Amino acid sequence: MSLAPRAVLVHRTTEYEELVARHGTHGQAAFFLSSRGRDIEEVAERHRRTGRALAEVASAVPMTWRQARVERADLDRFLFAPEDVVVVVGQDGLVANAAKYLAGQPVLGIDTDPGRNPGVLVRHRPRDAAELLVATQSERCDFDELTMVEAVADDTQRLVALNEIYLGAVGHQTARYRLGLEDDGGVVEAQASSGVLIGTGTGATGWIRSVRQERGSGPPLPRPTEDRLLWYVREAWPSPATGTSLVAGELTAATRLRLTVESERLVAFGDGMETDAVELTWGQTVRVGVCAQRLRLAG
Length: 299
Prior knowledge:
The chain is of the alpha+beta class. It has two domains: 6-141, Rossmann fold (3-Layer(aba) Sandwich); 148-293, Tumour Suppressor Smad4 (Sandwich), CATH 2.60.200.30. 21% of the residues lie in helices and 34% in strands. It contains six helices and 16 strands. The strands form two sheets. Strands 1, 2, 3, 4, 5, 6, 8, 9, 13 and 16 form a ten-stranded mixed β-sheet that branches. Strands 12-11-10-7-14-15 form a six-stranded antiparallel β-sheet, with helices on one face. A hairpin with a 6-residue loop joins β8 (175-181) and β9 (188-193).
């Protein structure tokens, strides 16, 4: 007998909860904010809206379904199952945070703060949850298959991201490595830079877009469902030993960017999740390209 679907509600600790945890009480948190020209009521109201949204979505889960909740900080320890329907209740970035831990499960993005969030990935309101949850079990739900990016190290470590992957040094130190494209006839360049950024069409609304705007030119931004990535080297430094000729480009589904570490320690992390990074040491090689896995996001 097959298991009933499980609705997994993904959320994150609110700013209000973080403030109270840090300062001990509501009053102490209010005093801290007032000393910096802010009113805690604004933060508390966003907290209440999030709570109401979570409660409304939870009550919309069909009675015959199972239900679970997971906070963003616990995503790397949560075991998602094939029959799960993942309901992200929060901001656009929370969808990206959850994406790397999924394997084709349907995802619903619920916006808790319309007007404040762009709503690129959290496309729905809490009141829509009941209909959407049922629709995921039929042919009535339309999904966008969003392209993801992956980095695979030569020791089998693997990292997947929805927006972008950053490869570089911890902190603000210089990253040293050798960079090349696997289909470029073996051309490789030694570089010293602030790191390499590889992004998707979904990420083209964020970090990748800002880097591209700084350059003033380059390939057109990919669409979120397009099997194409853009990559940029940040602040490459020219020297007798390092070059700056390979600093930007695009990757198709069949192309991989290849980076060999020439620093004591570099890291790769995706979508801003530095706490869940792949660590790379001298001489290791990592290949980055389009991931075969997609994020199935309800339209």
